[in-house]
Amino acid sequence: MSTPSLPHSTPSIARRKFAEALFKIVGLGSLTVAVGTLALLFGALLYQGVGQIDWQFLMSYPSRHAAQAGILPAWVGSTLIMLVTAVVGIPLGVAAAIYLEEYARKTWMTELIEVTVTNLAGVPSIIYGLLALGLFVYILGLGESILVAGLTLALLILPVVIVTTREAIRAIPVEIREAAYGLGATKWQTVSHHVLPYSAAGILTGIILALSRAIGETAPIVTIGALTFIAFLPPAPFTTQPPYISFDWLLSPFTIMPIQMFGWVSRPGEDFAGNAAAAGVLLVGMTLTMNGLAIYLRYRMRKQVSW
Q1: How far is residue 235's CA from residue 248's CA, in Å, rounded to a whole number?
Q2: How far is the C-alpha of 306 from the C-alpha of 150, rounded, in Å?
Q3: What is the pTM of this model?
Q4: For the chain, what are the domain ranges?
């Protein structure tokens, strides 16, 4: 029995290798263009804004004079809003994900909820602003305050936290759950002592990514009435008199760093362009700090927990 010849295999293999090499070249070129453009933009931002950052810029209020203008109310407002967002959005998102993944029965209702949550993760952010304007401002009467801004961004990150937390929990091997049940653990003991510790790194990564998205959002905050010029700070959360804690700052007017940047850029002339660039550098720095913290904590958790 003769061995069949393969006269047409060599050209076919050559074409595949050529297509693979061409794809690598196109992919590398696309990566170079994308990263190069980002590097150029960020370099221009650094070049224009780093020189403006000093203690006076960080601790001063906005002013009509560029040399005297500062960003104190903006970064304080961004910090307080992110605090409210994290306190409200993270526990609700993680708890909802645990329930959907570990406790909820697979019915048409849970499937509808899962599809809805997944679709909400891609809804434009201004939709959440309109929802918050109607619900929190007009119906509940909470006003244009830090609390409303934090609740709005909490709604914004909630689908992202739920989806990423479910994916992290789903990645845990089923053998870990079976081993815990075999030793007599209850459902909650299995989830709290085994599933959550092993999936904590993935959950934390999703949370930080969601907060990184929220800190730069402008459209929903503008919709609920954030101020573009504010020359005062919210009341302090701590006082010198009992009970030493005040929540008056939750109902205070506010501004955030992206809105302050927009206010400076929209001014005629180039005097405020450097201030806007400096605010952009600070905002990028805050985002990179959050992501760096997430990478560090994820590394530590993965190092401490081993399967």
Answers
A1: 6
A2: 36
A3: 0.82
A4: 15-51, 55-304
Q: Is the peptide bond before 243 cis (omega within 30 degrees of 0)?
A: yes
pLDDT in tens, 213-228: 888 788 888 888 777 7
Residue whose C-alpha is closest to residue 47's, from 248, 273, 301, 224: 273
Q: What is the pLDDT of residues 35-82, one digit of tens each?
A: 999 889 888 888 888 888 888 888 888 888 878 888 888 888 888 898
pLDDT band at 33; cut points 50, 70, 90: very high
Query: What is the residue-wise DSSP string for the chain?
Result: -PPPP-TTHHHHHHHHHHHHHHHHHHHHHHHHHHHHHHHHHHHHHHHHHGGG-SHHHHH----SSGGG---HHHHHHHHHHHHHHHHHHHHHHHHHHHIIIII----HHHHHHHHHHHHHTTS-HHHHHHHHIIIIIIIS---SSHHHHHHHHHHHHHHHHHHHHHHHHHTS-HHHHHHHHHTT--HHHHIIIIIHHHHHHHHHHHHHHHHHHHHT--HHHHHTT--S---S-PPPSB-SSTT-B--GGGGS----HHHHHHHHHTSSSSTTHHHHHHHHHHHHHHHHHHHHHHHHHHHHHHHH---
The amino acid at residue 205 is T
Residues 6+ apart with CB under 8 A from 222: 129, 259
CA distance 214 to 220: 10
- Let me know: does 154 contact 88? Beta carbons within 8 Å: yes
Please compute, for residue 160, the number of CA atoms within 13 A of its CA located in the half-sphere on the CB side.
23
Spelled out in words, what is the top-level CATH class assigned to the domain 55-304? mainly alpha
Please tell me the predicted confidence (pLDDT) of residue 5: 53
The sign of the dihedral angle between the CA atoms of 242, 244, 246, 249 is positive
